[in-house]
Amino acid sequence: MKRIRYLAYLWTVVITQIGFGVSGSFLHLERQQGESVEFSCHIEPGSPLPYGFYLKRTWLQPRIVFFWYQNDPPDVKDAADKGRLSISGDPSSHAVNVSFSQLKAADTDRYSCEFMVERNGKEDEKIPGRTEFFLYVSSDDVSVDVELVQTCVGGSAVLPCHTPNGEGLAVEGVSLKRQKGRTPVEVVYHSKQHHSSNHFPAERVQLSSAPSPHGITYNVTLQQLQVEDSALYSCQLLLHGRPDCSTHLERRTFFVSVQGEECGCSNSSALLYALSAAVGALLLLLFGFVLMSKVKARSGAKMQPPPPVYEEMVGVQSPCGKLASLRLEEAESAEYSNGQRRKATSENHYESPRGGLLRTNCHT
User: Fold this and answer.
1) pLDDT confidence tier of residue 364, bands split at 50, 70 and 90
2) What burial class does residue 267 get, using C-beta atoms within 10 Å of its C-beta: 0-12 exposed, 13-18 middle, 19+ buried?
3) What CA–CA distance (Å, rounded) separates 68 from 77?
4) CB neighbourhood size of 333 (10 A)
5) What is the chain's Cα-based Rg?
6) CA–CA separation, 224 vs 197, rounded Å?
7) Which UniProt keywords apply (predicted)?
8) Is 131 helix (H, G, I), strand (E, B) or coil?
């Protein structure tokens, strides 16, 4: 039972470490130039209360947008943002709302919130908000649907391409565009006659096709990704009779976010989940073993045969002992029948007193 308690304790610790609580989320926001957007930042209530708040850009232009210390005016780092920012709430209330107006294409980026909490005798702690934001500001009238693809350093990303409107035209190739600045750039071009890969060597690009509910899906797989490969990507299929003349991202766009951790090395969350599963399986196996042992012990006790009748009557005397006593009584009776001792007669020592009809395996 001590082992079971220890494993249960270990399993609880592992589950606590990986956190089955509310995890952070990632919110996609698409806007047109000139529109507005709002970031709602909050954390779980706790003590001590936060005294400050950061809003940061973490991708295209990594920098601090502003810092807000309690009741002081927000410290906006870029003068161009001062007239476009509107801030409400209070860091000590665990919630801050930030509004951006007059958006520009240069505002496209990944944004994160951080609350500052004072720790006695320790360095102040930065608690990230529960939501991160990806803001895409389009510079034209074409709206896009941005999908998040997250991976790690050295990992890969699969970008599916579909024919427009499910048209069954012959596909002659594929073009992959990437946007990190204001203008998209073609990084992969593949057709039956020509193949080029700017920024991506040929060994890092894999093309494949597979059937799907919408027809044939052509997948572009980018391999061995690095942090600097984080960008917006969109692929366009080259159809017969339709030349590629677009200079913008397609409606379906992927935000490939490459985290600064190597795949399989620093992925502590995956390791903790695997450890939790292993400990849980071991705990269940041990519990099942203990349960089966108890059931087997009980069934063995119930199926034990009752002692023979002769053992109940004379204790634990064996049948051989009984047989010897019986022979001794018969001999004494024969010698003293009618009160007279019978004369000794010659006896065949190779036969039993009953004429060889009684055989036994008892040895003296």
Assistant:
1) very low
2) middle
3) 11
4) 9
5) 43
6) 15
7) Membrane, Transmembrane, Transmembrane helix
8) strand
Q: Tokens 């232009």: give the residue.
A: 61
The tokens for 25 are: 């989320």
Question: Which tens digits make up the pLDDT trace of 189-245?
Answer: 887 777 777 778 888 988 888 776 666 778 899 999 998 899 889 888 887 766 665
- The first and second tokens of residue 205, run together, are 């690009």
DSSP state of 351: S
Residue 88 identity: S
**C-alpha–C-alpha distance, residues 353 and 355, integer Å:** 6
Q: What is the CATH number of domain 33-139?
A: 2.60.40.10
Q: Residue 292 and residue 57: Cα distance in Å, rounded?
A: 58
Question: Which amino acid is present at 173?
Answer: G
Q: Which tokens in the block code for residue 353?
A: 């007193």
Which two three-digit tokens encode residue 73? 């005016």
Please identify which residue in the block is written with the tokens 């063995």.
300
Q: Could you identify the residue written with the tokens 């107006």?
A: 101
String of DSSP letters for 52-109: EEEEEE-SSS-EEEEEEETTSPPEES-GGGGGGEEEEEEGGGTEEEEEE-S--GGG-E
Say which CATH architecture domain 145-262 belongs to.
Sandwich (2.60)
Contact assessment for residue 144 and residue 249, using Cβ atoms and an 8 Å cutoff: yes
H-helix or E-strand containing 8?
helix 2-18
